[in-house]
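Quick start: what a row looks like.
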Amino acid sequence: MTGSDISHILKEGELEKRSDNLLQFWKRKTCVLTTDSLNIYTDQQKKNKSKELKLQSIKKVDCVEHTGKFVYFTIVTTDNKEIDFRCSDEKNCWNAVIAIALVNFQNRKAIQGFKTQKESENTSLGQQERCMARAP
């Protein structure tokens, strides 16, 4: 990914996050999912960002459970940290949108890596051809 890539907002709204402390209370957070991160705010005005989860640091969206009132899911990071979330109804749930954003991000990253590899190979071949042309 390059610095010139622009992050577009994919979803915005409220999500509940389980706290990391011993009591593990559910706290309502304002969240913004972009093409490269999930931003979690402590306030609805989005002035106080409490956490930014870059999609490159997310391994998977896991443990989806539907109850009568909530849909629960877990985001697993690349360092195997688990962050639990829940949303109030299936129609407004985030797990599928986050999973699709993650797949799209990984695809863009793979394509960029492939292009970089091909450019490197082409540069290397061009240098070899120039050396061969100069040889007696």
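That is the whole record. DSSP finds one helix and seven strands in the chain. Strands lie at 9-18, 26-34, 37-41, 49-54, 58-66, 71-77, 82-87.
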